[in-house]
């Protein structure tokens, strides 16, 4: 298939998942931000923005600015609106390859972006709406696109971004820990009920972090997402069958996943910041390596660049 | 509040709170939000401030959206065979820390007394031989079950979960209205209401520290596990539900989900050799603690109603043999009997040697001749309740009843004086509640929930505030047109910022490095980053 199309699909996967993750993080943290005194809000808002990989544009960065930066700013690929806009733009360029169901749902989402009130209460609804739309896009992608190479690129993007987003969810726990319970962290990932059913009476932030980082069966855990990415890469490049890997992306993803999966620790919480940092870096590097290997484009397509 | 703010307040509030003080004056009740003169009480300042900034359109939009969320999430109750969202009003009920402190101690005290009473009546009945309460009263109670006489339940606790209904009278004093130590329901609405309010009225949370309610399921699970039969290392807890047609089914699923335990129906259980098992895909699995959400009458067809399909034969014998803990214990209903209720202050003195912290509502026992005569003469001014009723069934409010109804009631009281109690009509306190296009005073009660693990009685800081949505109505039950409010218990020092808790952040915590040094990755700038 064309590199250009593959690249578009890869980034549709990433951007949709990014919108989804950002909406989840924002939804949960907004509740907490609202309970803070005014002076604290600014600091926490800035920290949250930093976790999401952006810097405040001005000194006076408070709650409304945070909402703009993470939800409504169409010019920034960190925000929900920006991600969904970029996903739609990518789909438009690969329109002949993506199914009409997928294209239409992305396009409808794009036109729905501006129909929300931008205050706190409106943002809650916006986040919910985003989750519904992204679930629909993912569902349509899974059921209306043949699971061939093009779909693999989409899933590859989605899995890498999911690992990255879960890492950010866990980082928010670390940066904004005071008053932020592990319950919220799990709700963030939609993992609360699953966690409770597997853990029975063993509650606590160590277990919650372990679940989101290492659980082999929960689809939003980092290990699970990295394994998905690994499998996609293996299917995309079946050449290296016996010894070693010439494919950088596979090596990076595989090393990160196996390190986490086989790592043994007594004090996960104190190692967590490093895990998160390394996972995010591995995702960024894998994404670069994939670009070099498969997309092989000149720099003029700035809209596909890694921004986070 | 300075005068400028006050003007703004009056202007801003003029639409929504128009006529409020007049309507509140008419009820003659204590208003939770406003002191006389439409002055918001201290505890309500933030709420008032948040509401002041909202227009009618905002408030209705938020109320609609909260109702829709409840419907989507399945937070419903069964009304005449139809699932309805449980109406949640946008104005919370706020309880200051000092008042809550009294409430907490009062509820815990009551639970301890009822626990002691139940242990006693199913054993030696010293309370009867010491003349505190007549034997006949205990033994004639419809929920006194001889089937569970003479054994201490495994784990030693009978009242694991209780919901003590409390009201505030016209003078602003809290009084206990009734005890629920059988199957108190409603805690799911406490949890859901808080989630909905955090999104529905975020402005009001602001500075004040509202005590969280989300730890309830964990507290409940740990109490249930703690009271498991002796010798069980890792007890298996289940929630026993009558099934999907029960009006509180939503609550059963929520609690089982939040505790991470199985929700079972009677047919999933099997008793053998005085042990209880559940049928699973991996064969039969022993059950150690059953959180029972069905009425005693339906629990065990061998002991109670033989036609019950909801329970499991053999449960009572298993409990008697100490093979399973049933929470709450079978037979607790005798403590809910409204005639026994009238003796609870005496029971507190008898068992605990303490004075009751929260008083009862004055109650006439109709088996006593003088009380009965007074009641029959003044039926039109009293509330008359059946002793074993719940959910407001069978209750007659004298001033609202027609002459025919009062005559019928009079005949029934004469025929069965043991079956009824009478109380003065209490003006339950009011809280502003959205009704149509403005706020009006509506009467509320409060059900705090307590969890007893045998050593400690923990009272959930919050509770279910039920509100009668009809103007002037005193009946708050959801089956009779009641709704609910989120209940905010303020923490002791409202100014204490959340962030004063020591922060465990990357900067404070010692960094641990466990990952291998990056070798052949092309990006090597990472080492310099930190």
Automatic annotation (TrEMBL), chain A:
Domain DUF403: start-end pairs: 1-295
Domain of life of the source: Bacteria
Organism per entry: Pseudarthrobacter enclensis
Pfam family for this entry, one: Alpha-E
Record-given protein name: DUF403 domain-containing protein
InterPro entries hit by this protein: ATP-dep_Glu-Cys_Ligase-2 (IPR051680), DUF403 (IPR007296)
